[in-house]
TrEMBL record:
Region (Disordered) location: 15-38
SMART domains reported in the protein's UniProt record: UBQ
Superkingdom: Eukaryota
Annotated ranges, domain Ubiquitin-like: 42-117
Classification of source organism: Eukaryota, Sar, Stramenopiles, Oomycota, Peronosporomycetes
Annotated Gene3D superfamilies: Phosphatidylinositol 3-kinase Catalytic Subunit, Chain A, domain 1
Skewed-composition ranges (Polar residues): 15-31
InterPro entries: Rad60/SUMO-like_dom, Ubiquitin-like_dom, Ubiquitin-like_domsf
UniProt name for this protein: Ubiquitin-like domain-containing protein
């Protein structure tokens, strides 16, 4: 068994903390595969109209619909009442972070659906 000293960085709201841990790492291929899967996950920030951010850690092939549903549930509103945008373009629920070329810590915007518009 090989001992592995790792540094873990955790970003908090306005400060950073560094946690050091010493873990025993067995020499197996299963562990390497798990590490690769964890490394693939990215964090996506969802920012609402008031500026509040909610973070989701997802794999690149996760359907955005899953993120939309989780966000709506956290906010206590139906997912159908929300619209999600990336650089001003609406995101479809069947798209994935990989399809959208999202990277770690990228932001998508969330707005309440607006029915109708301005009338003179």
């Amino acid at each position: 068994m090989v001992k592995n000293l790792t540094l873990k960085f955790t970003q908090l709201e306005e400060s950073q903390s560094i946690t050091m841990s010493e873990e025993a790492t067995p020499n197996t291929n299963a562990t390497n595969e798990e590490d690769k899967k964890k490394a693939e996950a990215i964090t996506i920030r969802v920012k609402d109209q008031s500026g509040e951010e909610t973070f989701f850690k997802v794999k690149p092939n996760t359907k955005m619909d899953k993120i939309f549903s989780a966000y709506a549930q956290r906010k206590g509103v139906p997912a159908s009442a929300l619209r999600f945008l990336l650089d001003g373009t609406r995101i479809s629920g069947d798209q994935t972070p990989k399809m959208l070329e999202l990277e770690d810590q990228d932001q998508i915007d969330c707005a309440l659906e607006q029915v109708g518009g301005f009338r003179c």
